[in-house]
Amino acid sequence: MLAMVGVLAALATVSGTPVPDLPLRHAVHDMVVAGFPAAIAYTRSGIDSSHEVAGFADLATGEKATPDHRFRIASNTKAFTAAVVLQLVGEQRLTLDTPVEHWLPGVVGDRPITVRQLLNHTSGLRDPTDNPEFWEPVLADPAHVYRPRDIVAAAAAHPLTAPPGTRHSYSNTNYLVAGMLIEHVTGRSAVLQVYQRILVPLHLVHTSFPLSDPRIHGRHLRGYDFARKDVTIFSPSYDWTAGAMISTVDDLARFHRALFDGTLLPPDLLRELKTTVPVNSLTDYGLGVERRTLPCPDGTTRSLWGNTGGGPGYHSYSLITEDANHQLVLALNLYDIRADLANELPIPPVNLLPALTTTFC
């Protein structure tokens, strides 16, 4: 699921009301005061990086949060998946504008959906995770295991939300199909491809990609819902290549820096990654990444790339400037899936503005 509502609402207020340029330390502290159990931020300007941390990794024990604590990165996973797909395009094992049907006959219902349309969410494939009934098994049993192929089949059985290529409509199904494509053309698991192509070369030793294990191993933030119920133990199987990964703020920052500075992709494929379709007045979507326009208090704007993620117990944001010289990664350990499904605003709302303006304006 995307943690977009609170972010976009917050961004929309910038141009109307000046926002004080608060130090990041204050911004992070204020998130905890507002009600988040913990907030962990990584920032970088050029070669200089720093952390700001406030709150608790575990409310029951009083363990304080640190930059080393792992968390579920949810839809930030999509950028990893898109990077692998684009590398396969560079190896001429996939092409962006060929229908998925060419490699996976019948999987998307014999529809002319291209690989590009999967990655930029213009396929029209439905997202079963938008349906509260989808969550009933795992909410009743956090160890419940979903099979990605079953989720894709359920989505493909419905009519498209729009003709392919005509409208952006965010759907986790797109990235499950992308995972299936990776496995089909490589003959190996998508998880292994992410490890071999990204995690190992970038030395992301604190990042993992579980398939069905509902626990987070090693030092980690506990995740909570709005009632402060601990929802850390939760099967990631529903999200697979759309959002199952676990990381730290430093590892996530290293990945996005490598993605946008050309380490992972050559210039032609980086251009494809950054070819966008409109989402709303402030956001466009590329291939697995968002481009967001940040209005600054002085009337100027900044163009930011990256991802947001939201799933049971966790919010995360990873943003980087066009030149890859400035970054902000933020992890929060509060997210309520039931409220998200009911289209309720986050309680407390995620006020990113002080952190964004301090880092980028």
Automatic annotation (TrEMBL):
InterPro entries reported in the protein's UniProt record: AmpC-like, Beta-lactam-related, Beta-lactam/transpept-like
One Pfam family this sequence matches: Beta-lactamase
Domain called Beta-lactamase-related: residue spans: 39-333
PANTHER family on file: D-ALANYL-D-ALANINE CARBOXYPEPTIDASE, D-ALANYL-D-ALANINE-CARBOXYPEPTIDASE/ENDOPEPTIDASE AMPH
Name used for this protein in its record: Beta-lactamase-related domain-containing protein
Species whose genome carries this gene: Actinophytocola xinjiangensis
